[in-house]
Design brief:
The protein is α+β, with helices and mostly antiparallel strands. It contains three helices and five strands. It has one domain (2-94): Beta-grasp domain (Ubiquitin-like (UB roll)), CATH 3.10.20.
């Protein structure tokens, strides 16, 4: 299955891509499978979205799809059908902090 992933500008620059990234994933489409495939295809992104050793999401990185914040979902929870079919992208967003 081919899905679409939209990266924040600084990660697109690091990965040397423009626009959305298309990933082919065999098996269930989950946050874990998307990030594993992304890091395999673009090794320079390893450690930018998830911690190297724990594989936990970095604190200021958020995941969205279908107008829903999926950041606190379990990594193996299936992503929405619209992401699986490629109708909607999986968004990786740099969160902003401040006041």
């Amino acid at each position: 299955m081919t899905i679409r992933v939209l990266l924040p500008a600084h990660l697109r620059h690091l990965a040397r891509v423009k626009g959305e990234v298309e990933l082919t994933i065999d098996g269930p489409i989950t946050q874990r499978s998307v990030l594993d495939t992304l890091e395999a295809a673009y090794p320079m992104l390893r450690g930018t979205v998830r911690d190297h050793s724990t594989k936990q999401r970095r604190p200021f990185v958020r995941f969205f799809a279908c107008e829903q914040d999926l950041s606190h979902e379990a990594p193996d929870t299936p992503l929405p059908e619209a992401v699986v079919t490629g109708a909607e992208p999986f968004l990786i967003v740099g969160a902003m902090a401040g006041g």
